Structures are given as structure tokens and as C-alpha cells.
Amino acid sequence: MGGLLAVGADLSPARILNAYRRGIFPWGTVERQPLWYSPDPRMVLFPEEFRLADSLRKTLRARRYQVRFDNDFAAVISACAAVPRRGQDGTWISPDMMDAYIRLHELGWAHSVEVYAEGELTGGLYGLGIGRMFYGESMFSRRSNASKIAFAHLVHHLLADDFGMIDCQMRTEHLASLGGREIPRGDFLGRLLQLIGPDRRRGRWTADGLDVHW
Q1: What residue ranges define each of the domains in the chain, with the CATH number in brackets?
Q2: pLDDT tens per residue across span 166-207
Q3: Residue in 34, 28, 25, 33 with CA at minimum distance from that of residue 185
Q4: Omega cis (within 30) before 198
Q5: Chain centre distance of CA 75
Q6: Which one, of 173, 169, 172, lies nearest residue 185 by Cα?
Q7: Minimal CA–CA distance to 37: which of 24, 55, 50?
Q8: In this structure, are residues 140 and 147 in contact, taking their beta carbons and an 8 Å threshold?
Q9: Is 137 left (phi over 0), alpha (psi -120 to 50) or beta?
Q10: d(Cα 162, Cα 79) in Å, to the nearest integer?
Q11: Pairing between strand 181-183 and 66-69?
Q12: Is this structure's pTM higher than 0.90?
């Protein structure tokens, strides 16, 4: 992935949050030293542009699953690190990365969306919420469409809470199929400045009471 800016420093909550507010994120390590990126162009998804395919709509309407927010963040990030992905050898989510994001979750910045079927965690995603900005980090599926179900519920939550943009970091066909698109880094940074403050959404998220009509 292009856009490498720096190598090193720590993964303290303050440093990570400061980086995200400037359009920079850690992605992988070399000898336990974080790699910091800000790619150009930047893959984003505007919540109102989310593309809900007919097949996914049918799956959502069937409601053969349960969705929870911030119920088991540690399990989600562990699954994102462990579940194999096509064309990917290993994972960038190191133990140090896990510890850093779990700490951010404990502080109310990092959030997870979990999809359960018959009591089993079958898919999910995690990322950070700062102001009206959501930074997507990773997702996983153990059953067909499980990560898409999580993403659809995330978008519904973000729309209801007036979030303006989801940072998807780099292009994938999966994200493009959901409505994601690339924009120049300058445009991304300009929008970011309008969305990141004030931090009025810090704290645990919940799916309770969400009346979702697909």
C-alpha cells in the first residue's frame, strides 16, 4: 500500500488519536515499530451512498441473526486478525496493535459491530469514532455476508447519528461494491477537518432500540 509517512514511535491512545485527526493511521509493524500511512487517493464511503444489493436486503429482512454494538470488542479484533483472507499472507494486526485498540475501546473511542447466528459470533467489524467521522479498520466473516450485515447496521447507526464519512483507507472491490469510492487526499483532509470535532460521541455504542426497516 502506498502512502507510508513514518516508521516508529508508540501506539499510545493519544498518539493514535492525534494521527487519525490528521488523516494518518498505523498499519502493520516492522520489528514492533508501527508503520504510519496516509494514502492518496483515499478510499471513503459516504453513509448516504451506501449501496444495498437486493441479495443483501433479502438477508437483512430475514433476520436470522442478531447484531450488537460494543458487546465483545476483543473477540472481533481477534477474529479480524485470525480469519484468513484471499490474497493475504498473515495479518497486520499484531498483539501490540490489538492491545492499543482494545485500550481505545475501553476509553470509548474504538467500536465494534458483531453479528451472531445461533449464539455464535459469525462476523463483525471495528473502527474508531471521532466527532462525526468513523474510521473503519477491519472486518471478518465466518459465514456468507456476515461482514456485510455488520457494515449495513453500522451505516444505519451512522446515518441516524449524523456521521458524515467513513474512512475505508484503501480500495478493495468489496468496499467498492458497498458504495465506497476514492477521493484525493486533499479533499479527504478538508472534509476531515469539518467532521472530527467536537468529540460528542465518545462512549459505548448500542444497537438497542434501533428500528431498522430494510
Answers
A1: 42-183 (3.40.630.70)
A2: 999 999 998 999 999 999 999 999 999 999 987 666 888 987
A3: 25
A4: yes
A5: 15
A6: 169
A7: 24
A8: yes
A9: alpha
A10: 29
A11: unpaired
A12: yes
